[in-house]
Specification:
Largest sheet of chain A: 6 strands, parallel
Low-confidence stretches of chain A: none
Largest interface: A-B, 63 and 63 residues
Strand content of chain A: 15-25%
CATH class of the largest domain in chain A: Alpha Beta
Oligomer: homodimer
CATH superfamily of the largest domain in chain A: HUPs
CATH architecture of the largest domain in chain A: 3-Layer(aba) Sandwich
Chain lengths: 444, 444
């Protein structure tokens, strides 16, 4: 049981504020395991935070010697808040008779669901900085959080995620190949909303590129990617080198089943094995509670779901809707390679899908008619070289049973060859999805 | 912050025992977050425990209402112990001025590295039971731990292991197909010694049996297996039905590389793919920090090591030495099918390997001579039908480079057809392992 010097931030903006703070200092001194307590003076501060302004706070900090762990100290602090009449769990944006933050605890780093130490925002808050300076601390020498942390080795990444899991956090993983755009940002937002911690991986996975494909030319925009992750308040970015992921004797891999042999699987042999292998590797490493995938790559999503169930990863796979440009083009990292003409022409993909969806909404249930409808739209655009157009069961993308269609997902892939380099674009749409764009973009 | 009624067990066998206990009760009453404290009377108890007897204890229990979490309450209790002059970390088997155990905390279950609640042994200790009865508790209605817990669904197993990881525990996994013997027990002992929690899986994995193999006839001895696990103080036994592991649409699997195509891999096509898939599935599910494998199945161990590295599971694979019968036969679940004659004859495998090792120890460095030596011994036993005898690099079992041999592992497989049913036996031995059996068993 090691003694540490800990710092607490105290605040009050309700009732007899000085009395609340004074009583807290006195009570802290009586706690087993807490030695000398030294308090700063109390300072008046205007409310800082979101929502309409609250009454001003009286703030200060205390220094204490303690053998209590950060978690035990937090428990005592919460109990003191409760004693002072604070409702627990504390409603957001309410006056607080007593508010105690654990700012620092020796050199201990805590990154759990209930507690993060050093406090992630202490250094941004003058109402914390001032009393700490008054207690004689050199603020520039104190530890801070940096977000996102950028990690390059699998071991560091596994360790960080382990710490979170060990602290009871849910962890959302967003696997990407970088060249991040709004679609990726939507995955990160969803992960942040649903999970205690969010990790983004940026790794252009050589396994999922075939010999003639664009591995070397795949867009790489790391600095911009980091800015996007920072804006989405991602906790960690894992960006390994290929050699760190696959050593020279690498030979085991994940083999995938029938769902991976049609459409993209037929056109890109080995692609989905490479995808499943890297996703399995990332899930094994990070052990996230949730992993976020865009529906844009619908077949990838189906293969990953199947793999996760077959290999039993206890990770919830969360599909996220396609993010589109205002004219309907699905966001993709490869869109940057489209020439101006192709950029205009390629909206034909979404318009073809939307046209079939429109027919379905009006009662069309014949699959050939639905497909013919979409195909007729595609045929109006000579710049689009169609790879496939399919109507599949939603979810696992299995073949639909014979007879009238009562739903399903249309999937399309086409090549556009007029730009910086040839680009293959994918898109898909559920027949019973509501129209999500202005009428102009929906119209064939 | 929910208020719970918690029970602490208090003891002292050093100094003014009643004063230590009385002061602890008084100090507890002053802790923020602890309400009414009610103490039993103190009772004199002879020392109970291992080692030479210590001075008698004065024991009692207290009931308290608290908003402190179990972890925070534990922190306060440890601080009180320290105040009373107890050395921390507490040396085992020493007089203690104050000893506080958290027995119960409402209906909360805690299973972390630092704390297990309800206290795992409270119900075995009369010095705990008596004061709890005095406080008016119905002991039979109180929660207890049961070890091992037997879990049948992957979801329960994943959740249990998650709880452990979330509590900062290391977790040792011992994957087995049941029919447990001393070899398995040695894996469990090692896991218990190295990890905070031990989980044993018992699953006869259909994927790793070929069409003509003994899946249906593989020995199943579940009740005896559970007794062996209980004796080894295993925390959890996971025993799923095949349908719970593989659903009807199961199709993804782990494909393994070159290490899996020779020896057992050549004789049992698909075997190692099945092994790697189920091991990956168990590692994905349990996410153990350590997993224990016997060296008896040396090629399986090599395949698993490779797979774990390739897919990046952050699990340490721990190889454990072969456990042998006194006459050298390696322990195996299939040994029960050996007829009496074959049981005598089959020691030839170990004697053949030991003979080559003996030659190596005396300076023989020619691989053909070493193999010929072992093969000559095998040839003396007509009941043994040799499948293969190989000398490979230790660890990954790659082919040895040409030239003189400076170490390696001999691997042998042979069939014995004279018993209840035909049995294939495997054995292996490192050339530079020291002799581990009495000379009689070593002699060819």
């Amino acid at each position: 049981m090691r003694e540490a010097i800990a710092y607490l931030g105290l605040g009050s903006n309700e009732g007899d504020r000085a009395a609340h703070l004074g009583r807290a200092v006195e009570r802290l001194g009586a706690v087993p395991g807490i030695g000398a307590v030294r308090a700063s003076s109390w300072h008046e501060n205007a409310y800082v935070g979101d929502g309409p302004p609250l009454a001003p706070f009286l703030n200060g900090a205390v220094e204490l010697r303690t053998v209590l762990s950060p978690a035990a100290l937090l428990g005592v602090a919460k109990a003191l808040e409760a004693e002072a009449g604070r409702r627990l769990p504390a409603p957001h944006h309410r006056p607080r008779p007593l508010d105690i933050d654990l700012l620092l605890h020796g050199d201990t780093i805590v990154d759990t669901r209930d507690l993060v130490v050093p406090h992630p925002r202490w250094h941004e808050r003058e109402f914390v900085r001032r009393p700490l300076r008054e207690l004689g601390l050199d603020l520039d020498a104190l530890p801070r959080w940096q977000r996102p942390a950028v990690l390059h080795t699998p071991a560091e990444f596994a360790a960080r995620c382990s710490t979170w899991l060990g602290g009871g956090c849910t962890v959302g993983l967003v696997p990407t190949m970088g060249a991040l755009h709004d679609g990726h940002a939507s995955l990160m937002r969803r992960a942040r909303a649903e999970c205690d911690r969010t990790a983004v991986t940026i790794f252009v996975n050589p396994l999922q590129f075939g010999p003639g494909e664009d591995f070397a030319a795949y867009p790489r925009t790391f600095d911009a990617d980091l800015r996007l992750c920072a804006a989405q308040q991602v906790d960690v970015v894992f960006a390994p080198e290929p050699a760190a992921m696959y050593d020279p004797d690498f030979c085991s891999h994940v083999a995938v089943g029938a769902a991976a042999t049609t459409m993209e699987g037929a056109l890109r042999p080995g692609h989905f094995g490479g995808v499943a292998t890297v996703v399995a590797r990332l899930l094994a490493l990070a052990r996230p509670t949730h992993a976020y995938f865009g529906e844009k790559d619908a077949q990838q999503l189906a293969v990953v779901r199947r793999m996760v169930q077959d290999l039993g990863f206890p990770t919830a796979i969360v599909p996220c809707p396609i993010v589109r440009e205002p004219d309907g083009l699905a966001r993709s990292s490869r869109n940057v390679y489209l020439g101006a003409e192709d950029r205009r022409a390629c909206t034909i993909l979404y318009r073809a899908l939307a046209s079939a969806r429109h027919a379905f909404a009006r009662g069309e249930r014949d699959r050939d008619a639905l497909l013919a409808r979409a195909r007729a739209v595609l045929a109006t655009e000579p710049r689009a070289a169609l790879d496939y157009l399919e109507l599949r069961r939603d979810g696992d993308l299995a073949a639909l049973p014979p007879g009238p269609v009562d739903g399903g997902r249309l999937l399309v892939a086409a090549r556009f060859a007029g730009g910086v380099r040839p680009v293959r674009l994918l898109d898909n749409l559920s027949l019973d999805a509501p129209p999500d764009l202005p009428a102009a973009a929906e119209a064939p």
